[in-house]
Write a structure and sequence with these properties.
The protein is mainly α. It has 45 helices and 14 strands. A hairpin with a 2-residue loop joins strand 13 (about 580-585) and strand 14. Helix 24 crosses helix 25 (about 565-575). The longest helix is centred in the N-terminal third of the chain and has 27 residues, at about 160-185.
Length: about 1000
């Protein structure tokens, strides 16, 4: 719109700018005040003037624009009337009359008309793309497209408006295609599939969209579907237009058939763009007082410098704990950063702990750091490693793998490409790591040790007591970590002299003789720091080290110590100052692996009476159980489970709202589950299993399912060994839920059967209720409707017997799904509505989503599709708010079914694609269901080959799992095969 001629005129002062919108309903506004645009014909005249970009339109042109070839007899008078009304609404200076016609004079700014702004954004995007700034171009196009608000010129009559409407819609599609092209250039192929599926359904003859969909599917690892899109397109064009696909589409099909490597990555233009690739910079800060190690720095630096000409440069540092491996590695890595301009990755592999980091988890974090979307990260270790190496190909990245357990843990994390390098620290020599440059790191020389001590304590204090300082570093065994702890304590004690510290260290009883005895060789250095603690600090150090888990919150620490939070924080911060404890984040603290072992040794040796150790862990278990029960009660008001949990001797945290409660649960997940395992091992079985049950959301969300399952198995096995049938029954009930969520239905049913048997023998009503409910759900998935009805009726009776209305509502909703399967839709709707009524009465939120989910399924079966979609959409919103990712995916699947039943295959395909991305409750079996539904939607859209690809994948899943649905899918494939 730049360069449009403007006619000067006398304007009245305006406090607010005038703006017009045509990319949707025609609107006018002055500031925030909406202005009237009149009747449809008056809006048609306004559109004809706005889109002439300031040029004058004659009365005849306006009549033709509004009415076409058959204007009314009073058309000229009507035009004048409309113009007069618009002038009153907009202002005389905006609508000008001249030469028998009219013109609208807009400000020079593009903001005055949304179309002009969109054109300006498009022009800027083209410039950014030409300059190689794809991120900026993509952002600008998104802004331009966001200006559309439905159909352009909505509701405006007349031939001129219709012509412009078609033009604007075509332009919008061109912008969408350009933006999707940029999405694919930037590697967002997995996210684009859902949108492209919907667009190709809406515009089946638009070949560019089909081409983009083929490329997105291919890059998402869905080659069969990509080729199926081409086959569908070719058949559609032949049937509808009698033509073949254009050359570009045919060429893409051939490249896919040949697995052309050029299709696997974004275009070369993206690789040349400096701003597009993510450049991680994850190295921890180097210490400002790094001292000595000059020979090692030079040696390692030379190896890293050779990375450009080698397949991969790998250096592995080995040495005892506390010898300074990490400090040296970080220092060398910072010095070498300039040689690795594409970034630096870092991870603590926690190899010295009981549970070292899994390579699969580390690769997931690395892929995210390199810019990979969560939905594009593969599931298996092998696939993640392959994608990781692919992303690093052609880039120069340094990977620092700290605190590795062994070579097996490290191998999947190595870049494996020229130009990259890996720097590894470990307590073991990695002689079995092929091609690695091995470095054995010993303690410091006396000169280096003294220099480090002096830098921390201060030159003035050391200079006058040099001999005493030498005695100090010698007593520390010249071990860097020990020296740093001793020097830090001395630096914080201004009344101490170096001789005082040396005298303390001279007492050999304060040091261990095992200085060179493997992992525990650093105990002597920790003894120094521990011996200087005040009594309350020492007690905190000993007791807090007893807890398993990666870290500890301030509130949990206060529970263990049986102290107020404020006093606990003072003690912990004092321990942080001595380097005995690390501050992982505000309000969270952690021990180094060896410091934790030392703290436990101190607890065994020094804690009096010894029972205090067990009491501290018992208080921690009480804290987690009480707090998890509070979270459970907030999410499920009225659920009587909390009445049947083991009582606790101390309260947990209180929350003002459900969001903060759920935040706590997911933040504490790893620590809470570690507490369950540790408590079970110590014989605290009943509270451990109840904590597991109260935290059951961790299993259903999908975020912590594996850790939850491991904890549940630990409790079950410990209870079985101890002969505690009550705990075993509850543990098997939690395992039922885990197996059900993951689609292992036979295992789930067996655990539930045993749980019910144990519950009856022990008179424990809770597993009797929930295990029966779960067996009903399992029966739904296995199409055992009569069994399911029996189990769910039993669950309803059991829940009523203990007054658990929430449980009763759950069973009613599940029974509704049984009735749906049996064709009893009227009673299915009634049962789901009864469940929802209970949930509403109890004020539930998250569980209400399950009720609406069940009602949506029943309404879909009853043919009441609009109502079903309302219920399912409400359920989806609640699941999303509560971070129940697997339930989100499952609800998208049910929404897809509802759209399909309502003969809206495009919307069905879009939601099925979302279910594939998010994954669902029910594991592989449910994946087969989603693929079957997606295939049906694609078939209805005329994309038969792609539908076949989905059904073949679903059939393979069903045959592998022995699911009854295999026969149905064979029937779907048979007509296609026959054709």
């Amino acid at each position: 719109m730049d360069g449009v001629p403007r006619v000067p005129g006398q304007r009245r002062p305006e406090a607010q700018p005038l703006r017009f919108s045509v990319l949707g309903p025609v609107r006018a506004a002055r500031g925030t005040e909406a202005l009237t645009t009149g009747s449809p014909q008056q809006r048609a005249l306004l559109v004809a003037l706005l889109l002439r970009e300031g040029r004058t339109a004659t009365a005849a042109e306006l009549i033709d624009a509004v009415w076409g070839e058959e204007p009314p007899s009073q058309a000229l008078a009507a035009v004048r009337t409309y113009a007069s009304r618009l002038r009153k609404s907009l202002g005389a200076d905006v609508l000008a009359s001249e030469s028998g016609g009219y013109a609208i004079r807009l400000p020079v700014s593009a903001d005055a008309l949304d179309l002009a702004l969109a054109e300006e954004l498009w022009a800027d995007a083209e410039k950014a793309r030409s300059a190689g700034d794809l991120c900026q171009a993509r952002s600008l196009l998104r802004k331009a497209l966001s200006l559309w608000d439905g159909e352009p010129l909505a509701g405006v009559p007349g031939p001129y408006a219709e012509t412009q409407r078609v033009r604007l819609e075509e332009w919008r599609l061109q912008l969408v295609e350009t933006r999707l092209d940029l999405d694919l250039e930037q590697g967002c192929h997995a996210e684009a599939v859902s949108e492209l599926t919907a667009l190709t359904a809406a515009h089946p003859l638009r070949e560019r969209l089909r081409e983009l969909l083929m490329l997105a599917l291919y890059r998402s690892g869905r080659q069969a579907e990509a080729l199926a899109v081409y086959a569908d397109t070719r058949r559609l064009l032949a049937d509808e237009l009698g033509v073949d696909p254009r050359a570009g589409l045919s060429e893409l099909q051939q490249r896919i058939l040949q697995a052309d490597p050029g299709l696997a990555e974004p275009s070369a233009a993206l690789a040349e763009t400096p701003a597009a690739p993510v450049r991680p910079a994850q190295l921890p800060a180097t210490v400002p007082d790094f001292t000595g190690r000059s020979a090692f720095v030079e040696e390692l630096g030379a190896v890293l410098a050779s990375a450009e000409g080698r397949v991969m440069a790998v250096s592995a540092l080995a040495g005892i704990g506390g010898v300074g491996k990490t400090t040296l590695a970080v220092h060398v890595a910072h010095a070498a950063r300039i040689q690795f301009p594409d970034g630096q990755l870092y991870v603590d592999l926690q190899g010295a702990g009981a549970r070292a980091a899994e390579p699969e988890t580390v690769l997931g974090a690395f892929l995210r750091a390199l810019g990979t979307a969560d939905s594009a990260i593969p599931d298996t270790l092998e696939e993640r490693a392959a994608l990781y190496r692919s992303l690093l190909d052609g880039r120069r990245v340094l990977v620092l793998l700290d605190n590795a357990r062994d070579a097996a843990q490290v191998r999947p994390l190595l870049p494996g490409t020229e130009g990259c390098a890996a720097l590894i620290t470990s307590r073991v020599r990695m002689v079995d790591l092929a091609g690695a440059h091995l470095v054995d790191l010993d303690v410091m020389s006396p000169e280096e040790a003294l220099q480090l001590f002096t830098r921390i304590v201060g030159e003035e204090r050391v200079a006058s007591e040099r001999e005493a300082a030498l005695d100090v570093v010698a007593a520390c065994g010249f071990l860097p970590l020990a020296i740093r702890i001793a020097a830090s304590r001395l630096a914080s004690r201004r009344t101490w002299t170096v001789s005082t510290l040396a005298a303390k260290l001279a007492d050999e009883r304060r040091r261990l003789d095992e200085l060179q005895a493997g992992d525990l060789a650093v105990k002597a250095t920790f003894e120094l720091g521990y011996g200087q603690l005040e009594p309350a600090q020492a007690r905190a150090f000993r007791l807090l080290g007893l807890a398993d888990g990666p870290d500890l919150s301030l509130a949990a620490a206060a529970a263990m110590l049986d102290l107020p939070v404020e006093d606990t924080e003072d003690l912990l911060e004092a321990l942080v100052d001595t380097s005995l404890v690390e501050s992982a984040a505000p309000g969270r603290y952690r021990y180094h692996d060896l410091v934790r072992l030392y703290a436990r040794a101190c607890a065994e040796r020094d804690e009096q009476p010894p029972v205090e150790r067990e009491l501290a862990l018992s208080r921690l278990l009480d804290f987690y159980l009480a707090t998890a029960a509070e979270v459970y009660a907030l999410e499920r008001p009225g659920d009587r489970l909390v009445d049947h949990l083991e009582p606790t001797s101390r309260p947990g945290l209180k929350f003002t709202d459900g969001t903060s409660a759920v935040d706590w649960l997911y933040t504490e997940a790893h620590v809470l589950l570690a507490c369950v395992r540790q408590s079970a091992a110590a014989g605290e079985l009943r509270r451990a299993v109840d904590l597991l049950w109260a935290a059951k959301d961790l299993a259903e969300s999908g975020a912590n399912s594996r850790q939850y399952e491991a904890a549940a198995v630990t409790v079950r096995d410990a209870a079985q060994a101890a002969g505690d049938a009550r705990t075993e029954g509850r543990a098997r009930t939690t395992l039922t839920n885990v197996y059900l969520v993951s689609g292992r239905f036979d295992q789930a049913d067996e655990e539930a059967r045993l749980a019910m048997m144990l519950a009856r023998s022990e008179g424990d009503p809770v597993p009797s209720c929930w295990a029966a409910n779960d067996r009903g759900i399992i029966a739904i998935y296995q199409s055992r409707n009569e069994d399911g009805e029996q189990y769910l009726q039993q669950a309803i009776d059991n829940f009523r017997a203990i007054g658990n209305q929430v449980g009763e509502a759950s069973a009613l909703c599940n029974l509704s799904r049984i009735h749906v399967s049996m064709g009893r839709t009227t009673s299915a709707v009634e049962l789901a509505q009864r469940g929802i009524s209970i949930y509403d009465e109890m004020g539930l939120t998250l569980r209400l989503a399950n009720g609406r989910f069940a009602l949506g399924i029943a309404l879909t079966k009853a043919g009441r599709h609009a109502e079903a979609l309302d219920q399912l959409s409400d359920a989806l919103d609640i699941f999303t708010e509560n971070r129940q990712r697997l339930w989100q995916g499952t609800t998208h699947f049910r929404i897809a079914e509802a759209h399909l039943a309502a003969r809206r295959p495009a919307q069905a395909a879009r939601h099925a694609e979302q279910a594939l991305v998010l994954k669902c409750i029910g594991g592989d079996w449910m994946l087969g269901n989603v693929l079957t539904t997606l295939g049906r939607a694609l078939s209805d859209l005329g994309q038969a080959d792609r539908a076949r690809a989905c059904w073949q994948e679903a059939l393979a899943i069903y045959e592998q799992t022995g699911a009854a649905e295999a026969e149905e899918v064979r029937g779907l494939l048979t007509p296609i095969a026959a054709a």
